[in-house]
Amino acid sequence: MAAGSSPVLRSDCTAGGELGGGRGAAGAALTGLSLSCRAQEPLPEPRARSWVSGGARRARGAELRALVESMRDLHKSSVLGSKHGSLMSWRPQYRSSKFRNVYGKVASREHCFDGIPITKNVHDNHFCAVNARFLAIVTESAGGGSFLVIPLEQTGRIEPNYPKVCGHQGNVLDIKWNPFIENIIASCSEDTSVRIWEIPEGGLKRNMTEAVLELYGHSRRVGLVEWHPTTNNILFSAGYDYKVLIWNLDIGEPVKMIDCHTDVILCMSFNTDGSLLATSCKDKKLRVVEPRSGRVLQEASCKNHRVNRVVFLGSTKRLLTTGVSRWNTRQIALWDQEDLSMPLIEEEIDGLSGLLFPFYDADTHMLYLAGKGDGNIRYYEIGSEKPYLSYLMEFRSPAPQKGLGVMPKHGLDVSACEVFRFYKLVTLKGLIEPISMIVPRRSETYQEDIYPMTPGTEPALTPDEWLSGVNRDPILMSLKEGYKKTSKIVFKAPVREKRGVVVNGIDLLENVPPRTENELLRMFFRQQDEIRRLKDELSQKDIRIRQLQLELKNLRNSPKNN
Fold first, then answer.
1. How would residue 2 be classed by pLDDT, with cut points 50, 70 and 90?
2. Which residues contact 315 (CB under 8 A, 6 or more apart)?
3. Is residue 118 within 8 Å of 138, Cβ to Cβ?
4. Phi and psi (nearest 5°) for 552?
5. What is the pLDDT of residues 389-439, one digit of tens each?
6. Res. 46: pLDDT tops 80
7. Would you put residue 492 in left (φ > 0), alpha (ψ -120 to 50) or beta?
8. pTM of the predicted structure, to 2 decimals
9. d(CA 312, CA 336)
10. Minimal CA–CA distance to 32: which of 62, 63, 68?
11. C-beta atoms surrounding 368 within 10 Å
């Protein structure tokens, strides 16, 4: 620098220009800090310095100092505003949650189930059910429906000739484990039947074709089965005849029927004590039903939100539905179960076309959304006040999922702080992947704050008590000592006499009703052919009768008889 020359302040105000371009309070504050630190730095003297008057330099310096002071004031106001929740705050506002850092952990390949011919049926179900002992998966098969039942410890590659449950004459559409008896599973099929199976203690050693109980009551295929959450041996089934049948398995007969629906029932969900049943239907209506009387308590016509799935959110008296908006985007909606006139909130998720499966954990108040056909699982925390839904994080995977099974709470690994576990069906690979949702904790002790008392494996009611109108919350259990099977409930199939109806030497109970619409059409045409044949045979017999009558008349009028 030349002797006697004063330092020239940096007068580049591009940061201020960016501020005017819309960076907001955050940009202004950060720019003010950087500019205030750099404002007094001398610049090296340029080679060819143009002459500037002293008055101009002083004016430019005053303007720059005023700009720096204004930026400092703006920075102070933004920091102060952040403390008081001002809209000018540049600091992000976070909601405190112990589940904010929950992450998904995929099991290693040797702990997955490989080589499984997962069904290619397009029915919108999970095709998978899991409990603390067994994993059941609906498989692709010819000549009837079947599903695998695999002990959880038997991971790795499953042999192609592994024993199956294969008693249905049509495709299996849904399977559910009994929540109180771990080796009892219910299945429903296109053959219009619901069947109850008893799995041996060590798993299947050979194909199982005989069910302990066969339930016939629907006139068309059965798409859904659900066990009552607090009562033993009460099973609900929904068919394509638009009816929901309530079965008492102690007697093996339907005891109630809900016939308020006008189209195919897509989903069923119970509240905590099983006193209410929520259903979504293809007629674009959401219903809350009193199951014993079949009375509709609340009904919503979802014009802007086409409902596919519904789930009760524990004891919060709220419902969550997933569906499609009028713009064909995937959407969720939150409802008050006592007033379905308008949803509390509606939120669009994305523009994908696959079905959204909702899963709710009442112990942690976490909601999981898994898309059919994609590999992502989003999770939220449900609150009692607005905005009700707080987004936490998203588990991403490149492998698309066909369905998901969910492990009951008593089957989780509490030592690893596992709060949820999915069993993901990857059809393209023939693979079942366990995905554990884990709360990161440093301590290895039991975390009571994330494992409250949870519904156990003991029923709170008998079928007769529930049918008489009694409601009772589920019996709770602690997971602190780990899961120990204490229930000694044994399923006893009712002994029923075979009430056969014999027509033309054919036992009608031995002839299975049509399982699909194509089979119904084939049976219809066969019956038409049979009717045509019988009509021809009858007309021939009429002709023969008239001939015999004429012969008899001729004999009577003959001279010999006179």
1. very low
2. 271, 272, 362
3. yes
4. -65, -40
5. 999 999 999 999 999 999 999 999 999 999 999 999 999 999 999 999 999
6. no
7. beta
8. 0.72
9. 10
10. 68
11. 21
